[in-house]
Structure formats: structure tokens, C-alpha cells
Amino acid sequence: MIHGITKDHQRFRQIVKGKIREDLRKFLTRGELIGREGKHAVSIPVRGIEMPRFRYGDNSDSGVGSGDASAGDQADVDGEGVGPGGTQEGNHILEVEVSLDELADILGEELELPRIEPKGKRRITSEKDRYCGIRQAGPESLRHFRRTYRRALRRQIMTGTYNPENPRIVFERRDKVFRSWKTVMSPKSNAVIVYMMDVSGSMGDEQKELVRLEAFWIDAWLRRNYEGIESRYIVHDVRAGEVDRETFYRIREDGGTRISSAFRAARNLIENQYVSDEWNIYLFHFSDGDNSSESDSRECCAMLRDHLLPACNMFGYCQVASAYGSGNFINVLHEQMDGEERLTTSRVNNKDDIYDSIKEFFTAGR
Asked: Rounded to whole angstroms, what are the CA distances from 78 to 75, 81, 128, 193?
């Protein structure tokens, strides 16, 4: 039976989820959510919800606010006020903690994203200890207290040493039993996400903020679908290199752009560390679409067709708007890579477009 307080808590959580769904597009654009990310939860400010609480007092008519005055009478106060009181109702804001899994589920339900199914042989196994029985020997940390207590109680009753007036149970070595375990192979779907970002001079702080937000939600959705996941980060201007997560979001360069350098770095990373038959591989490249030359763009398409697309579940190219970039690379992809099912492109001109971009990437459930 579910207790009343449990039912109330479940109802409250449903109300919170409903409020988040209503404002999901706005939540996707809140950069401060990423800063509040904990190990398992994100703090979300939700309007229009008051935390349930007890209110003490009687229901009599006497008390503060009662008396001979009527509505509209002027109140006697000492000193002068600073101005008339406000006439608008206040907004109630409650901060609630939502797990990343819950947030990803809300994202998937609202955007109607299908569950991602591992493809081909991209499944690996890991060893896992499972407690499966009882044995007579073992460390004290694995002693099964309940069974040990029952055995000692039964022994004392059978030998006549148990005293109901002084129900003291004394364990002997023969009473003790311990949990036993065996190592089993647990199948687990693994995935790796490789994020690539153009950090040339045309990619400013505004463009990087768009990348940061979209990468966070992509990460949240993929982690909801896979038990084990790794994230790798590559930045490039005319040269590419792997960096950590913190550097990926903060670095800024002012050089030119050669997109093929990032694709080549991703190819080397996959070929050396991630066998495509054992890993679900997701590649995402973020750029303003400005490339050094048409020949380099053609080289990128050749590398995609021959090496990257055959090895990955999907390749997502997100082009962010920039006043300094030509924005032509997405057109090259559409012209030369038309019909490639594993290639998905999207445009993000402002934060509101992140919602549609994520839906574009994962609608097919790649």
C-alpha cells in the first residue's frame, strides 16, 4: 500500500514535470542550468508552485486585520511612506531538483524523440559481482545477520538455553552464515560522443554559448539511452587537437579555419581507440560554416563518405550564425552529401533554435 504522503509527493512531482514541459523551450536556453549541474540532478526554477507546508492557528475571526475599520479607510501610520503600494500579484518561484534522467525523459517526450536502439554488434560485456547464495565461510562484512540470528535462536531453543525472561542471543561460530557471490558477464551498450568545434576568430562568445547549450542537452539525451558513455572534445582553427571539457567551452582563438583538420583528428581517434563493431559512435561538429577553401570542403566530404559515416551511428553538423562567417559549408554538405542517412544538419541562429535542432538530430532515433 502506498502511504498518503507518498501519493502527495508523486502528485507534486507530476505537477513540477508539467510546469517544466510548458516552459521547455525556455529551459533549453538557460545557460545557468549547466552551472548548477550536480552529480545526478539539476536545480530548476519553476514559477507558480508553492511548497506544501503546514499552517498553524485557529480559524476564529479575531486577530491581525480585524477591528472596526472597513475597506477603503485610511490607516494610521507614523512617518511618511515612500510611495503607493504595488497592485500586481507576486510571482511564486520554487527551485526544485530534477534528476538528469527525468530531465532527459521530459525532453524526449516533449520533442517526441524515439528511444535509441544499439545497432549491429555494438555491444560489449563487463564483469559484475552478483550475490546469489549463502555459505558457511566468509568475511564478517558479508555476514547474513538475519539467518545467523535465526540459527542461533533455534540452537538455543533446542538445547534449552534460551530464557524468555532474558532473551539474549549469543552467536557461535557454527551459527554464522555469509553471503556468497559469483561473477557474471553483464551486457552493456557503450557509446562515445565526439564533439568538434571551430574556435577560429569568427566564432565569438555568443556562438560558443549556443554550442555549449546544445552540447549539454545532446549529452543528457544520449546518456539516458546508454549505460556507459564517453565524451571526447576536439577544437580546431587551421589545426585540430583534443582538449578536456573545460577547455572546450572556454578556449578562444583568432586564426583561420580548416574543417578537415577536425575531421582527420576524429578519424584518428575512432580508428585508434573505438572499434565501430563494439561502440555506438556519435560525431557532432559545430561551426559558423566558414572554411578556408572549396578544396578543403570537398576533402571534408570525401572523409565523411569514406571513413566517418561508415563507422558512426550518426554525424550531426550544427551551423551557428555568425556575422563574420560565410556560412557556406552547410550548403556544400547538402550538395555533395545528399541522401546520406547518417548525416544530419541543422542551423542555430539563436537560443530558441536549439529546441528544433535537437529534434532534427534525433527524430530518426539514430
From this structure: 10, 9, 74, 66
